[in-house]
Sequence to fold (446 residues):
Amino acid sequence: MKKYIFFLALSFACTAVCGQSRYDSLWSDPGVEQRIREGIEKHRKGDARIKLNRKSASLPKNVTVEVKQLTHAFQFGSNIFMLNGYKKPEQNSRYEEVFQSLFNTACVPFYWKTLEPEPGKLRYGVESKEIYRRPPPDVVLDFCEKAGITPKGHTLVWDNVAHSTPEWLPRDTAIISEKISQRIRQLGERYGNRVKTWDVVNELLSYHANAIQMPDDYGAKAFGQFSKSFPATTRGFINETTSIWNNYHREYSPYNQLIENLKCSGAKIDGIGLQFHFFSEALHHDVVAGKSITPQRVFDVLDLYGKHKVPIHISEITIPTLPYNETGLQNQAKMTKNFYRAWFSHEAVEGIIWWNVSDGTAVAGEDKWRGGFLNEDLTPKPSYFVLNELINKEWKTDFTKSTDQSTMAFRGFYGEYAVKITAGKRVIEKKFMIKKGVENELSIDI
Fold:
């Protein structure tokens, strides 16, 4: 019996090691690495020139040019559901500090159930009753505007009673249709100029055991009402669950067919959301073992939805820490790095949105996945250091160079830059942008 247990344990250990070996070999494949590196270089960086116009012969021959990237054009974000949501002021300060250090985009909660808990009683302002993980939109938007963070509204229409659809909503489809239109109009009037990107419909393909009977073709109707109620420059996204990564059948993939169907119905879809939650031990195990959501599958899915020629958001990310030990922590960090690099490299992807910043703050039933990049006490996990290294170091362009030339050319990640020119005692500081598809030149008189 002891021998049997020993060999059984050995078998499990071998399976784990072999799985890890397969996972690592897939992601370290030279072809995969080449596609990622070339994609990042081609799609995330642009050429720039700094012209130095010498106005004085007395200036030294060599001048020092310091270039520092301040912001990203690419959207890195998370949901911001825990703004002012912790029990202690120092915890809330820590949350804000971490959020601002990593992200320029925030997913703002506009769930109908908690935004209008009673008919006509809307929780917009600071005076609103507190609800866990549902800070009032006005409070969140004030914070975002002060911090230079771009808000994304989530979500206008979702048939899930547990999380979105109000319990008071009558079970009459004609009334539901009228109420949905009213809700979209109200939000367009109040927030149309403050929030320029929205998830219009969420999880149309997903079965929810507690879902109510929705009106016929409610997805297309929601997009139609959105187009009428919001400024033309405001973008409406569709969003769907993690199933899209495995339920892939090229152009016949269900989500792709849904998008085509909605477009044929007249829906103006400005962006596509792809969720990435590992809410299954089996899925997590298969990904770690290199059996599911492989690099090739990531590229295949992004290539497919990229054909629609609208931006893609990796819209909600939960990469679990399973088990919650050093192995689980390192696996989370490894997957974070690999998937972020692949997503960032793809031309169609505009933004990547993590879901819960810290453990212990997920919706009821999901804390067990420990999908934060911070622990419950807000200390960093290895995945935090991965994100910080990628977003704030590897994917930013900073350098200092001495030159006697009149033009300095370089290639940098898209975003805003600060430039400091030192010529003897003369110091000049300017800001400029490196944008995609334009001539990026800064001319400075020295």
